[in-house]
Amino acid sequence: MAERVDAGIDVPGFDRSTKDGYAVRARDTFDASEGDPVELSLVGTIEAGDPPDITVSTGEAVSIATGASIPRGADAVVPVERTTRESDEEDDIVSIRTGVAPGDNVMYSGEDVAVGDRAVGPGTVLTPRDVGLLAALGVESVPVVERPTVGIVSTGDELVRPGEPIDDERGQIYDLNTYATAAAVRAAGGRPEIFAHVEDDYDRMFDTLESAGERCDLVLSSGSTSASASDVLYRVIEDHGTLDLHGVAVKPGRPTIVGHIAETPYVGLPGNPVSALSIFRSFVASAIREAAGRPSESAPTLDGRMAAPKRYSEGRTYLLPVAVIEDADGDILVYPVDKGSGAITSLTEADGVVEMPPETEYLEAGGSVTVDLFSADTRPPTVLGIGESDPLFNRLLDRIDGPRYLPHGSREGRRRLRDGVPDFALLAEADAAAVSGETIGRFSREWGFIVSPGNPEGVAEPVDLLDVESFCNLSEASGLRSAFDSTLETIAEERDTTRAELAGGIDGYGWAVSGIRSPARRVAEGEATAGLGLRYAATELDVDFVPIGTQTLSVVAADERVEKEGMRRLRTVLETDSGELAPSMAGYDVSTD
Amino acid sequence: MAERVDAGIDVPGFDRSTKDGYAVRARDTFDASEGDPVELSLVGTIEAGDPPDITVSTGEAVSIATGASIPRGADAVVPVERTTRESDEEDDIVSIRTGVAPGDNVMYSGEDVAVGDRAVGPGTVLTPRDVGLLAALGVESVPVVERPTVGIVSTGDELVRPGEPIDDERGQIYDLNTYATAAAVRAAGGRPEIFAHVEDDYDRMFDTLESAGERCDLVLSSGSTSASASDVLYRVIEDHGTLDLHGVAVKPGRPTIVGHIAETPYVGLPGNPVSALSIFRSFVASAIREAAGRPSESAPTLDGRMAAPKRYSEGRTYLLPVAVIEDADGDILVYPVDKGSGAITSLTEADGVVEMPPETEYLEAGGSVTVDLFSADTRPPTVLGIGESDPLFNRLLDRIDGPRYLPHGSREGRRRLRDGVPDFALLAEADAAAVSGETIGRFSREWGFIVSPGNPEGVAEPVDLLDVESFCNLSEASGLRSAFDSTLETIAEERDTTRAELAGGIDGYGWAVSGIRSPARRVAEGEATAGLGLRYAATELDVDFVPIGTQTLSVVAADERVEKEGMRRLRTVLETDSGELAPSMAGYDVSTD
């Protein structure tokens, strides 16, 4: 609410009955009692909304409904349950079995709300109750605080708008920050306005920034904030705006710019997505919330304790990106996620930041911290898993509400499960054997080599890879790569050589990509002639498959978390849904034991 | 999200540099060290977004920016800070002062996100982070769960749409429940559709309900749910729909109807506004949230302890309407607010309900309870005050964020302050003297009689009221009425009579209205010839004023609450703002001591 709204009318606007019963002159009932009722003649009926055009005289009563207007002459209402109605041919008579005083069961005009009463104060965030009160006062519209318009200027020649085609050859990427920032602006109560991406041309950047400054209450951008010659945006602000400060004493804050453009406040956020959201959260969101009239305490936070220690000593405040998970007791565990290098997955893995002041060099494991969440909608995941990337498991996750699964590979899953962070890990055989924990589910997948349709190079067994033109491998993080390497190891032993020697002879062995389906895709697109992968991926992409082995993946739960609600749900899904899904997915089998 | 969205592209889509530096063949740097750098010839520069149309051969390097595409031939990046650039007329040479391995400072295609990776799962409530991830994957639009359409049918001949004129004579009131329910539906994630108010005519009601049922996913109404002949809505449901149940075993739930109309679920909520919101909160909101794909745990609650005991023993669950306030330690105190009789102010005074199961006959003071809030936006007020209604104080409240003030009169303020519920009370002299607490502010207001312009009846002192045609009094809850009665008492003593005798001679003494400005308004509108009131009200309404006395109002704080932040703010406002506002308000004085 931008202003206070007072009541402009009395509520009720008339003397109304608060009971179903009979409107009477109280004086007529003074002698009435259960044993000795008083009889009054019924002279009419008034329903809610009826004009009360009846007058009640001495010895008379009017039947009246809750909410109806008290007729002239009457000054009280006798509840229906304290009366008896008797009618005969000639008269309508009501027996009153209790005395009432003037005003009994009557709400006088203005008794609920009187003209001039304070109804809704300035700054109120309107709830359904307030809407109800305003409606009851006959108010159709109210003055509200206008949402601030926040211009978001996209910068960077390499950025492409989602939905448009991208040219990998030119090193283009989709524009993430503009849209994440717009969503964050909206969540804080602002109205984002995205300014079409312009090439990093000085004059066009100036035009864009100037028009954003003229049309908006605040202008934001991300990236291009270094003072280097290539950062056109920085130079435009320096030449045509006001550069109030460059860099704040927090990490990540060095690339932050605060200034003015066309007399409108301007903030240049860092280019790294997590840094941009952290700086937005710490320095920008509260200004938008205040301008939008939102209460300041609405910045979302969550209290928890550190799952792992964190050391830091750069002498400035660190906005440490973290994620949260509930432990077995429902307490919040907080763990750092800082992948650096602008990885977008660090954005989806982080829930917020923990502010480490300059003098805090160490956060100990188990210590209490407050997480400043990136948004109010953030909830701890119901389950947190880390491990092997797998298509069947991805589909099983759809059957669970709010899971978080990090497909960082089997080896990483084993390591993190040991550190006590995730609820479970999805592990290949060797890793599953090397950790303690309860196996709550298991399935197998067939793996081998993906080859072009018709298998023109005639690949039949691993040694045939020595003759393929171009092999595409999986990265070492993958459990499937481990299975492949073990196979090579065995063959090398048989041939009295080393795995490295053998691998060195495979053209492309070192071309290791991350996604479990990626080598298959390279083969399908003609970029490789053979690749490591799953039968499922080959079927999906309609390329040929040379089976080599079967790998069992185990879902290993941390012992102390098996009873979490989300984990019980996962167990059910593994027991029932995996058997339902697997038959429709080539190469999968759940009857593993 | 209605469905899972998987990554459709690799991110990055190309091998990219994660540092500013030089793209090289790692093999060329194996011997490099700080003491013995390796010199490479610089053959080009690649910025982010540039096509990498340079090939790096043995002995060569290319200057590369973070995010730029690794050129052919290169397999690693040396960070700029481990290099020295030397140019002369003929050659561009870069000295490499460290060795790098293949892959160093390179993020391979698909390393961040690979095609087919699970990006956002079904049921996810999209946060700015998810929007960022989807943008990075080039996704322009996603399948989301459609908000359910909830039809709200307004019933009751006496109801008028806010904004339209109201006829008090006919006992009309503004339609509150339709709009409060619509706001609650929206807060739960539904899309409310209000069906125009129809008169309580059987055929028209049937048409309205049928079209609501055909167009909506759920139909709601409020009131008119008794089985009596006058409740047309009930009869229409019974004749043309399915009446699944009538009445639920909770208080307030007796009037609740659950059924179907045109095969669409239908819920008839009680007519009392607080009851309607309680039943909506308990039985309807979760269904709307689920249909809208909202997480079930998002129903807002607040934990606190009872400020006062509550006894109840009707053998069914009681959804006790309550309000909340923070005590001095920031803990939540919960107190019942149950005014009954359909008062709309009970709606604005209640924050939610506490569920008392049938077997709980008693909630003890200090006992822990969970409040089911009416909406997620509900915050405890920063200060809670009860007491005299006053125009100056109303304006002062505008200077405080989120106060709650209940103008129930000085006497009620004294009583409640004693019970330990409010932070402060605004009290007339006698009440202020009778309670303990710290007086944090004080001001005086001039009172007397409001008379028609020109004072045609020549009112000059209280006894002149014996001769006026029609006097309008204030109700006994008002501290101003107490001042008036004290004056009459004194006069009665002087005249050797009783106050009652004296008052009995004043025509209209018993016509007592609630609002502090209401008698003045009655005089201004010609309904009364004289009325009790403030000089301020007379000036505001441009009628004449006969001064009788000056009343001091004190803001008395509960001792244990004076240090609450909201109370410190109130004290400041009283000390500074009241002195600023009072001179512009006739009859007020803040220099009271």
TrEMBL record, chains A, B:
Domain MoaB/Mog: 151-290
Keyword Kinase: no
Name listed for the protein in its UniProt record: Molybdenum cofactor biosynthesis protein MoeA
Gene Ontology CC entries for this record: cytoplasm
Organism: Halanaeroarchaeum sulfurireducens
UniProt-recorded Gene Ontology molecular function terms: molybdopterin molybdotransferase activity
Membrane spanning stretches: none
Domain of life: Archaea
SMART domains: MoCF_biosynth (SM00852)
Assigned keywords, A-Z: Molybdenum cofactor biosynthesis
Pathway it works in: Cofactor biosynthesis; molybdopterin biosynthesis
Pfam families documented for this protein: MoCF_biosynth, MoeA_C, MoeA_N, PBP_like
GO biological process: Mo-molybdopterin cofactor biosynthetic process
Gene name per UniProt: moeA2
